[in-house]
Write a structure and sequence with these properties.
It contains eight helices and no strands. The chain is mainly α. The longest helix has 29 residues.
């Protein structure tokens, strides 16, 4: 296993470990990564042009750093605001959407790295396997995450059903 394979595994594992240790609802982080991707696709060029108006050309923010920030901003804030929201009883179930979020994060982050770094990672055999499975990883991750969001509604208390008021 080469250095680039370890980087890929780290990109997959880091979000999973972080979400599990902080007991964050990983399904919401998966959806936040999707939002970050949409923002990156639709707003990155406009935001870059706007930023270039205020920053001197010698100190301009690199396009890859700006796109990474746009991608990860929603997921980072979701993680921050959702710390401790997964009860210990459901933590084991949270591993599935956490794995989905880790896979999606790696698939979205690697192409946004600096061209040399991205190309060296993308040339590894492990990355080729990940890309071959990306439809199943993203589709399965989306389905799992949506299922977890749909099933995590707050439970109504018994008194609410009977119409009694306190």
């Amino acid at each position: 296993m080469g250095q680039h394979d370890l980087i890929i595994l780290g990109l997959f594992a880091a979000p999973v470990l972080l979400l599990m240790l902080l007991r964050v609802n990983a399904a919401l982080v998966f959806v936040s990564l999707c939002v970050g991707y949409v923002i990156t696709q639709f707003l990155a060029n406009d935001i870059q042009s706007f930023a270039d108006l205020f920053v001197s050309h010698g100190a301009s923010v690199s396009v890859s750093v700006m796109r990474l920030a746009l991608l990860l901003f929603p997921a980072a804030f979701t993680t921050l605001f959702m710390i401790g929201t997964v009860r210990k009883a459901r933590l084991l179930l949270n591993i599935l959407p956490a794995l989905a979020a880790g896979c999606l994060a790696a698939l979205l982050v690697v192409p946004l790295l600096t061209p040399g770094t991205a190309q060296s990672i993308m040339s590894s055999s492990l990355w080729a396997q990940v890309v071959r499975l990306q439809s199943a990883l993203v589709g399965g991750g989306a389905l799992i995450s949506m299922f977890f969001i749909w099933t995590q509604r707050p439970k109504k208390h018994h008194d609410e059903h009977s119409g009694k008021r306190h």
